[in-house]
Amino acid sequence: MVVHADPDELLQKGRQALQQKNFLSALAYFEKAYAERKTPLTASYYGLCMATERGKVSDGIVLCEGAIALEPHEPRHYLNLAKVYLKADRKTDCLETLRKGLAQGDEPEIRQLLGTIGVRKPPVFSFLPRRHFLNRYLGFVLSRLRLR
Question: How confident is the model at residue 101 (pLDDT cuts 50, 70, 90)?
Fold first, then answer.
C-alpha cells in the first residue's frame, strides 16, 4: 500500500473490500484513511471494521456514535453502528439503531438487515409485559400449534 494515499480513495477501496466480505483489507484501508483524515464517514467504517475484525466492540461503538453525533442525518452511520451492536449480541440496540437510520433516509441495506434480523410478534396479552410468564408460555404453545 502507498505510504501517502488519498483518504477518499482509501475509503472507496475499503468499502469495496467490505462488499467483498474482505474485512481484514477493509480494516487496513479504513485505518489508513482515518489516520490521514478523521471524518465521520471514515470513523464510522473504521469502527465497524475494528469491532468485526479485531473484536474491539466498545471502541467500534464509540467511533460509530461519534460519527452519528457529527452527522446525525447520515443513514450509513446508523447501519454501521447497528452491525457493531449485532456483533456484540445487543439485538434490541441494533433494531432501535436501524429504525433511527431509516428515519434519516431510505438505505436499502438497512431494510435488508431489518428483514434478516426479523421482527418479533406482538405479545399474546398486550396488557401484560412481554416477559410475563403467560405471554411467554401461551406464545410458545400457540406457535407450536401453528396458530400464531
Answer: very high
